[in-house]
């Protein structure tokens, strides 16, 4: 990290690294299966399928961590559209976790007491093939205060809510000025104490953690928590850790959530390496999610019994705090359901 070497104070248009801005990195991301195969020297005829409904989106910082010429790379599998996405499998549906019932107002979900989840934007910095959001007709355009007002009103009206989760999509595809407006509006709600940012962006575009973002989060009255999303140790390089440590340095706890994915992280050593790598930089492995049964992702499914066995194995090799809770989202429950 070279931010302290740069002469001028970085703005949102200029990454803290002094190289291209995160917005530019997003703009230059790989946006088709064919382009991704070409970048990685993989024969497109062998594996690439043109995506049907959810376009390929992979920032180059992430693509560079994929092994060239390896069609079974665990990072590649997460982002490359394949023909298996067209499999129609019983039980794999477009809205697997029944989110509609949990809406407090448009854009805000209240499933659990004391916390509410706010959909800040429909956009993401990467398109993960297993994601249940792939079927949501989100627009890519960034949201703003006007669209957030119903959510803000609903939070203000419910004094039991102490924590707001900023989710999406991914809140960190919003520019810092937008996030600042949102944080100010949230901090103005007296009963709110915590704001939790659920984001995969720092993993795929580490330069997203700009100086202005760090300043913004540091200066809020609200306690800020970060939950990143990485599924494999190879996603986490020195650049990612350097970015996240800037948050840790101002007292923001960073946690990770992962999804158990066949062919990506469904073996003992891979899961162990992920947790170990996280704990070595004081990132807490928070959750390991059972995959939601979303149409187009059935090829990633791992049976719950296998997941439980994996957790039992890594528990023998890690301190208790570095073993993630293996959880499943079951509609209508008052918390996530702990499987192991
Ligand atoms: C997962 C989730 C939360 C957060 O749950 P925690 O167990 O506190 O991490 C909150 N709201 C919704 C709607 C969720 O899906
Ligand atoms: S970044 Fe998160 S919300 Fe966006 S596609 Fe990936 S898993 Fe889904």
Account of the 3D structure:
- The chain is an alpha/beta fold and 340 residues long.
- The chain folds into two domains: 69 residues, no CATH class; 239 residues, TIM Barrel (Alpha-Beta Barrel).
- Helix content is 30%, strand content 14%.
- The protein contains twelve helices and ten strands.
- It has a ten-stranded mixed β-sheet with strand order 1-2-3-4-5-6-7-8-9-10.
- Strand 2 and strand 3 form a beta hairpin.
- Helix 7 packs parallel to helix 9 and helix 11 packs across helix 12.
- The longest helix is centred in the middle third of the chain and has 13 residues.
- The radius of gyration is 19 Å and the shape is globular.
- The protein starts with 21 loop residues before the first helix and ends with a strand.
- The N terminus is likely disordered.
- The site of iron/sulfur cluster has 10 residues, from loops.
